[in-house]
Amino acid sequence: MNPAESAAPAPYHQLGGYQAVWRIVEAFYRRVETDDILRPLYPENLEPGKQKLAWFFEQWLGGPTSYSDRYGHPRLRRRHFPFVIDERAAGRWLRLMREAWTEAGVPRELQDPIFERLAVLARHMINAHDDVPREPLGDVYLD
What we know:
Layout: H1 3-6, H2 11-15, H3 18-33, H4 47-60, H5 66-71, H6 76-79, H7 87-103, H8 108-125
Helix pairs in contact: 3-4, 3-7, 7-8
C-alpha cells in the first residue's frame, strides 16, 4: 500500500476545509468582542484579524499556504510582541478558542490533538515579562 493512501487526511480536510475554519474564526471573534481580558489586546476593527487568523489556521492545519503566501513565515511570537500577553491572556485565548471549536461543531476527538499543539503555541506567545520590541510589524512579509 502506498504510504500516502494510508495517511490520515490533514486536520484541515477532516474539519471540512475553509468554511469550517471560517466558522471557528467567527465564533472565536464573537467571544473576543466581549471579553474583558482579550478585547483590549485587539485593534478596534476586528475584521482584518479574522481573515489573517483564518489563513493562518488554514495553513497550520495542513491546508493551503495562504498565510505564508501573503506574509512569509508566520513568526507568530515576533508578530505578537506589540501586545503584552501574560499567562492569564494565553489561558483565556485557549478557553475562548476551545469554545469556538465546540460551537463550530468540531468533534472533541478531532479537537484534542489540535489543542495539545495550540496550548504549546499559546504558551509560546507569553511575553509580558520579556524585554522585546513592542513596535508593530504590520502586514510585512517575513522570510
